[in-house]
Amino acid sequence: MSFEPKIVGFLCNWCSYRGADLAGTARMKCAPNVRIIRVMCSGRVEPAFIFKAFQLGADGVLVLGCHPGDCHYAEGNYKTLRRMALLEKMLPQLGIEADRVRLDWVSASEGDRFVSIVDDMTEKVRALGPFTKNSDEEKHG
Amino acid sequence: MEDVKIGVYICHCGLNIADTVDVEEVSKYAATLPAVVVSRNYKFMCSDPGQSMIKEDIKELGLNRVVVASCSPLMHEPTFRHAIQEAGVNPYLFEMANIREHCSWTTEDHKEATEKAKALVSAAVRRVYYHQPLEIREVSVNPNTLIIGGGIAGIQAALEIADSEHKVYLVERDPSIGGHMIQFDKTFPTLDCSACILTPKMTSVGMHPYIELMTYSEVEEISGFVGSFKAKIRKKARYVDEDKCNGCGVCIIKCPWKAASEFDLGLGERKAIYTPFAQAVPNIPVIDTEHCAYFLKGKCRACEKFCELGAIDFEQVDQIVEVEVGNIIITTGYDAFDPTPITQYGYGRFDNVYTGLEFERICNAVGPTSGKIVLKDGSAPKSVAILHCVGSRDENYHEYCSRVCCMYALKYSHLIKERTDAEVYQMYIDMRCFGKAYEEFYKRLSEEGVNFVRGKVAEVTDRAINEDEDGKLIVCGEDTLLSKIIRVPVDMVILATALEPRADAAEVAKLFGITKSADGFFLERHPKLDPVATMTDGVYIAGCCQGPKDIPDTVAQASAAATRVLALISKGRVELEAATAVIDEEKCSGCRICNLLCPYSAISYIEDEKVSRINEALCKGCGTCVAACPSVAITHKQFTTEEITAEIEGVLV
């Protein structure tokens, strides 16, 4: 059996969670690998959550917010953008490949975009194989 | 803490979930999770028997946490929160697992769907374990309402609310209210004169004791939240004192300077001091400083000389007015599509190619031709072609159908037939006559001898290939019903142009904290069940700013928005977000990073105590500050680090 990656998805309540809902309502099919956790704003996503996910067995982490300029909380997604830029620099130092973490934007009307991001991410993480550094004791806790 | 007792309920949603997800297996799995005392599955959890099942378990088994795995929480979270509240459990001790939209509907493979459902249920169970009861806070609702846009939607909503003796501020960018509807000549399918049915409503707005009309004004800033918004409105200088002017119009008559009339889309002229049209409300002119000789050269002042009331005020400046309101309705309408980029239709190149809106003005008795349907040279057309779907149903411009063009094209056909002897050709893709009495109107026009030709026009050209085409505009395309290439020589071409989002829709959306759908129009909270609310509480949308629609639908939507506002005013108070952030002042180091991150300025630094504090009334619960706090001193209620970590653990089982 081929490797099925586990991907944790942090989706904001106002745009991307609704975009994911719309994909379902429209019966669009997508890879079942992304498991969604709802946050009010992508700005709530602490970098520690991302490390925690890897520590607990995730092979990838997807963060989706409203498109820049469309944030329900005015500018929370810009804060996420800044935070993720820093995080991306830390990932290789921790042995996490860049393709395992993705920040993207999905609006409430973009069910199709949600599906293509999920499918694309799943393929990329599947190609990378399982994330194996989970058991390292020196990892964040 | 008392013992946590969790009840888990897996919904079949008929076959929506049960067809793909093995609900029995998920239910058995849930029973094995920590602190779960009961796990059941049922056909429809949202039904009365479904809810009663939960309530009875709460009473008999002493449940103090509930998980329902069913549809999106955006559908039924309020239903179940209410149910457990009725059984005496705090509504926040509840979590929903979305195993329909995010699982059964998007997953083909039954085994994969079942596994995913288990993970989502496991996450919800592990998360709800840590939930704490929250208090629902209420604030009072300011009974004043702000409406932006004075077209038919704004007028309707304003009158509905003001008639209940609650104050409305109606803000309009142009010098008069009326919107696009007042530019129309007749309305389909009844052929009512547009001005005849609209001006009584405009007059009512103008003299209504509960409406404060602010024309030639724009909202610049919005702050606050549902129940108590503050708006800053710029009242642009009219250079005419509104209190002194009685609208006699002498200034307009005496003004020697002319400019193209915006109201007539540049087909006619107006003066440098003007009202856009005769029945303007308010009937108070404005001075266009770009064309007024006094503003350009420092000389003239003819208007001032002849105004007996001394109402002309060249020194007037823009004013910023601040108002406080509880609710906002956005009714900013649409822009008419500019067909210039579709060069093959010749708009802007050929004299007698008009847009739909331009033809409205030509038909209008007070328009540039005094209502005579004539060509640029003043002669009557012998033949007219109306081209449908210009800018609509076209992947190069707008994919959507503008919904009104088929009907206004039929209306034009009738007016042309009524007022000229011209032959009329309708070049359509599909006739979409969906509304009440619309299909009947189509039938009537067929009987009036209009030629209906099915096929999208390829080109409008003036290159004649025979004598019949000499001096004509030749409409080239395919009649797809006859499978024949056609060339129709006509004197006039009318482009049934699309309705598109306002050019500044993005800025307006940002100002009011609302979003746009893929087509660029404002996004409603739910496409079917909540078509007037937005994602921002207290901000409603109505009319064409939400999507192209006809006048009856616009009026219905505007009334619906007014009703929603009146419901809140009548209740007098509104529930605020309970899932806010709080700072543990023991842990706060006073670094003030959070102060700058908050988009609502809800966090302030208390100098004396060297800590930051959150004003809960202003906090909207986004959690951005929580994620940034280096001392981990901020807790996001309902989204605590503990809860989210448990959820991460849960989805990864």
Short description:
The complex is a heterodimer of chains A (141) and B (653). By secondary structure, chain A is an alpha/beta fold.
What does this structure look like?
The complex is a heterodimer of chains A (141) and B (653). Chain A has 141 residues and is of the alpha/beta class. Chain A is built from four helices and four strands. Chain A has helices at residues 16-25, 47-55, 76-93, 111-128; strands at residues 7-12, 34-39, 60-65, 101-105. In chain A, strand 1 (7-12), helix 1 (16-25) and strand 2 form a beta-alpha-beta unit. Chain A starts with 6 loop residues before the first strand and ends in a 13-residue tail after the last helix. The model of chain A is unreliable at 135-141 (pLDDT under 50). By secondary structure, chain B is α/β, with parallel strands linked by helices. In chain B, the strands form twelve sheets. Chain B has a five-stranded parallel beta sheet, covered by helices on one side. The model of chain B has no long low-confidence stretch (mean pLDDT 96).
Helix and strand arrangement:
The complex is a heterodimer of chains A (141) and B (653).
Chain A: E1 7-12, H1 16-25, E2 34-39, H2 47-55, E3 60-65, H3 76-93, E4 101-105, H4 111-128
Parallel strand pairs in A: 1-2, 1-3, 3-4
Chain B: E1 6-11, H1 23-31, E2 36-42, H2 48-61, E3 65-70, H3 73-86, E4 94-98, H4 100-104, H5 110-128, E5 137-140, E6 145-148, H6 152-162, E7 168-171, E8 186-187, E9 192-193, H7 194-207, E10 211-214, E11 217-225, E12 228-235, H8 250-254, E13 258-260, E14 269-271, E15 273-274, E16 286-287, H9 293-297, H10 302-306, E17 319-325, E18 327-330, E19 335-336, E20 353-355, H11 356-363, E21 383-390, H12 405-419, E22 423-428, H13 438-447, E23 451-454, E24 457-461, E25 473-479, E26 484-490, E27 492-497, E28 499-500, H14 505-512, E29 539-541, H15 551-571, E30 573-576, E31 581-583, H16 593-597, E32 603-606, E33 611-614, H17 624-628, E34 634-636, H18 641-651
Parallel strand pairs in B: 1-2, 1-3, 3-4, 6-7, 6-18, 7-10, 18-29, 20-27, 21-22, 21-27, 22-23
Antiparallel strand pairs in B: 5-30, 8-9, 11-12, 12-17, 13-14, 15-16, 19-28, 24-25, 25-26, 31-34, 32-33
Helix pairs in contact in B: 1-5, 2-3, 5-18, 6-7, 6-15, 11-12, 12-13
